[in-house]
Write a structure and sequence with these properties.
- The protein is an alpha/beta fold.
- The chain is about 25% helix and about 15% strand.
- It has a 7-stranded parallel beta sheet. A 5-stranded antiparallel beta sheet has the order 11-12-13-17-15.
- A hairpin with a 5-residue loop joins strand 11 and strand 12.
- Helix 5 packs parallel to helix 7.
- The protein starts with 12 loop residues before the first strand and ends with a strand.
């Protein structure tokens, strides 16, 4: 492992905090910065290297905080800039870096520049900062194209004067015009603002969607489906890397340089440019989020992504859960090929999940990725073995997907329910009051205080795994070892062997001293859905 402080991110364990659902200090039902600061000792004991903080900016919460009013301030419901500084100091004092979310594709519709654009009228300079187009028909009453937004419904919104604005997500999230110099300069000021406050890195939301080619006539929705590899007018255009080259120049002015990781849902071979040293430096690899719990699938994903990372001059990232997907303890509890949205619409009843099996596989998968070269991103609550809260009632849902899809898509609220710290209390220790999303009764059984110090608990397993990883991690190399069908085995430099048994049969334990096991062994046998780490015995 490199001892260069500039390379801290290459094999870091990063813990994602969704601020509204982590810890509520003032009791209003919404998580806040003082709440997060109060939990820094917990994060230090867990053993993470960095925290990724999801948006904490002023927002109407039309999209869980990703509709940003002002990227250089803190939402009053979450805290103040002084409290942000206190959090930075507490994390740094604990030896933990801080990564913050940047949302550059769009602002909120409450942003001062968007309000100015609406007031200024068609053809005004103020509207040039966003993507406005004249509608079709005699009076502009028809949308400029038939495009659909990610959350459902049309991607164009009328403003009542014949103009329409583009929103790839919710109507409250108008897209910036990245051809405008004001937009580029303002985002550079934002990055500098947070870097100067001690932020160590940035997670770039929808990093593949900033620059666009809206040359008319606009293609139809059907025509968009066949456009890939830089030719799509909305996503993954080559010129987006001109933006990130500018950002990299800014990042490299700091010592150590500020890091960045791209959320870019692009084909794997297109990921390298986002992760290059001349660009953001790292990009999320989401392939395991989409893979079945299967030996061949896992090995293929790892092989491909280690190669892509090497070609990019970066390190790979490994992710099983985040704020946008069904928690992996639940995904692995369902039969392969299950329609997750249909399962959510059934309130998690059809098909009935194999809860114990899902947690067993989730622990095995976590031990597998923590042993890989590269950085691992964990999502708050997975260290407790949290499953998806699939039975949230429609009346409680906050994700715009539910409303925009007309109830056809359940949305992402089930992974965003505030996490349990204690087995008792009005919100299981989340805060002195209630919680902004309802918590299930089973949270009491998996709360932090129920698992703390309990041998074999998922929390203690994560603590043990992160401590062992820190001790064993060396250079970014991996060697595959021939294994029986359904089993994946690899070695890391320094005499570290990792075996994951995806098969239904027990397999023999390799030679070495057991350092970590995701579940109980059967004597000298590794049961199904189990990962074991071994260290060479001293000669």
């Amino acid at each position: 492992m490199s001892t260069n402080p500039k390379d801290w991110w290459r094999q870091a364990v990063v813990y994602q905090v969704y601020p509204r659902s982590y810890a509520d200090h003032d009791g209003d039902g919404t998580g806040d910065l003082p709440g997060i600061t109060s939990r820094v000792p917990y994060l230090r004991r867990l053993g993470v290297d960095a925290v990724w903080l999801s948006p904490f900016y002023p927002s109407a919460l039309a999209d869980g905080g990703y509709d940003v009013d002002d990227h250089r301030d803190v939402d009053p419901r979450i805290g103040t800039l002084d409290q942000f500084d206190e959090l930075v100091a507490a994390l740094h004092g604990a030896g933990i870096k801080l990564i913050v979310d940047i949302v550059p594709n769009h602002s909120s519709d409450r942003h001062v520049w968007f309000r100015q654009a609406l007031a200024a009228g068609p053809g005004s300079p103020e509207r040039e900062r966003y993507v406005f187009r004249r509608g079709g028909g005699a009076d502009g009453e028809l949308p400029p194209s038939d495009w659909t937004a990610a959350f459902g419904g049309p991607a164009w919104e009328p403003v009542g004067d014949g103009d329409w604005y583009l929103h790839l997500f919710a109507p409250e999230q108008p897209d910036w015009n990245w051809d405008h110099p004001d937009v580029r300069a303002d985002h550079l000021r934002t990055l500098e603002f947070w870097a100067d406050r001690g932020v160590d890195g940035f997670r770039i939301d929808v990093a593949n969607a900033l620059t666009k080619d809206l040359t008319e006539p606009l293609p139809t929705k059907a025509e968009l489906a066949g456009l890939l590899d830089g030719s799509h007018p909305l996503f993954d255009r080559d010129e987006v890397h001109e933006v990130y080259a500018q950002w990299r120049e800014l990042f490299d002015r700091y010592d150590p340089p500020r890091t960045a990781v791209a959320e870019a849902w692009v084909p794997a071979h297109r990921r390298a440019r986002y992760a290059s040293p001349e660009g953001l430096g790292q990009a999320f690899n989401f392939d395991l989020l989409k893979a079945d719990f299967d030996a061949a699938a896992f090995r293929e994903v790892v092989t491909d992504n280690l190669r892509f990372a090497t070609e990019a001059g970066s390190s790979s990232t490994w992710v099983l859960s985040n704020h946008d997907v069904v928690r992996h303890a639940s995904r692995y509890a369902l039969p392969p090929g299950t329609d997750e949205n249909a399962w959510l619409l059934s309130e998690g009843k059809d098909p009935a999940p194999d809860t114990a099996g899902g947690l067993r596989r989730a622990r095995a998968a976590t031990a597998f990725i923590l042993a890989l070269p590269g950085s691992t991103y964990l999502y708050q609550g997975e260290e407790l073995g949290l499953a998806e809260v699939a039975d949230l009632s429609p009346a409680t849902l906050q994700d715009p997907t539910w409303r925009r899809s007309g109830g056809e898509q359940k949305g992402r609220d089930g992974c965003r329910v505030p996490i349990p710290w204690t087995a008792t209390g009005p919100s299981y220790g989340f805060g002195p009051g209630g919680a902004h999303l309802p918590q299930p009764a089973w949270f009491a059984d998996v709360a932090v205080d129920r698992q703390d110090g309990v041998e074999g608990s998922t929390l203690e397993f994560y603590r043990q795994a992160l401590a062992a990883r820190r001790r064993l991690q060396t250079t970014e190399d991996l060697t595959w070892v021939p294994s029986p069908e359904g089993v994946v085995t690899f070695t890391r430099p320094g005499g570290w062997t990792v075996l994951t048994n995806f098969s239904a049969a027990d397999v023999e334990l390799p030679a070495g001293r057991v350092v970590l096991c995701s579940g109980p062994l059967r004597g000298n046998l590794v049961p199904q859905d189990t990962t074991v780490w071994l260290e060479d015995e001293p000669a």
